[in-house]
Amino acid sequence: MPEALRAHFATREGDRSGLLGVFLCQASRLPELITELIKVKPKQPLPLSLIIDTGLGGVPKAISIVESRSELLSLRMVEMPAPSDVDEVWLERVSEFVPEDVIRVVEPRRGVGWLDGVRKVIEHGSWPKIRCGGVSSENFPSIDEVADFLSVVSSFSGASFKATNSLHRAVRHEDPETGIMHHGFLNLLVAVARCLSGGNVREALSSTDGEALAKEARELSEQACKAVRALFASYASASFDEPVADLEALDLL
Predict the structure, then answer these.
(1) Neighbouring residues of 197: CB distance < 8 A, sequence distance ≥ 6
(2) Handedness of CA 109, 149, 106, 29 (dihedral sign)
(3) How many CB atoms lie within 10 A of CB 157?
(4) Would strands 181-182 and 173-174 be described as parallel, antiparallel, or unpaired?
(5) Closest alpha carbon to 126 in 147, 149, 108
(6) What's the CA gap between 203 and 201, in Å, rounded?
(7) Are 227 and 221 a contacting pair, CB within 8 Å?
(8) How far apart are the first and last CA of the chain?
(9) Model confidence over 179-219: pLDDT tens digits?
(10) How far, in Å, CA of 211 to CA of 108, rounded?
């Protein structure tokens, strides 16, 4: 926790601070986070996304803890995995527990009925989250699955989504240690642009040509850029330096 906070605050004061979003912390580690913040005495409250790892029943207590330390923490987002069958009652409780001014992010499990779960999440005013990787090959959705997800989310006016896991590189690539193909966040961004304009989404997701993807991103109009970022609103990375280095190498900053 001390190391994560040091890195976060250093980035906040760096040249690329505009790229940094919220600080992610599991609900189970909130006491640890607060203890460290008391030592740090931040000038401004830390913008926080709370990852619910204690079950839906633990949400009210976790939010209460955050709100009681408003001098240290500013709750911006609450994220949680959905049960295997995402039902209306569960989603209603999420809406009740999380304040209206806080973004709710819900991750439906991939599998049978997955896209129905994505639709329900959006209909209840939450952002769906797509997990793009993990520790094993099963955690990586196929290009078709990502394309289908984008198709569903883009069909809703005003919808937004968050992506997470194994997206620290801009362009699709094979991990030399595992041999697993990783999705790229630039691929995802260009795919969203094509999804909104009727282009070939799967081609964008499968491309390993960073220069071509960067050129396409650079040529988007201001209106298209705003539409893309409204839909693809957030993504989580385990690294800050790697995505920035990739963007600099592609002349996108």
Answers:
(1) 224
(2) positive
(3) 5
(4) antiparallel
(5) 108
(6) 5
(7) no
(8) 30
(9) 999 999 999 999 999 999 999 999 999 999 999 999 999 99
(10) 33
The domain locations on the chain are: 1-81, 115-253
CB distance 183 to 165 below 8 Å: no
Backbone angles phi, psi at 26, to 5 degrees: -70, 145
d(C-alpha 137, C-alpha 120), whole Å:
27
State phi, psi for 99 to the nearest 5 degrees: -55, 150
Residue 87 carries which side chain, given as an amino acid letter?
A: D
Tokens of 178: 């595992």
Residues with Cβ within 8 Å of 171's Cβ and at least 6 positions away in sequence, in order, are 184, 186, 187, 207, 208, 209, 210, 213, 246
What is the Cβ-side half-sphere exposure of residue 240, based on CA atoms within 13 angstroms? 20
- Angle, CA of 250, 130 and 119, to the nearest 5°: 130
**pLDDT band of 247, cuts 50, 70, 90:** very high
Sign of the alpha-carbon torsion through 85, 100, 232, 163: negative
User: CA torsion sign, 239 to 244 to 247 to 248?
Assistant: negative
* 3-state SS, residue 231: helix
Going by pLDDT thresholds of 50, 70 and 90, the confidence category of residue 84 is confident
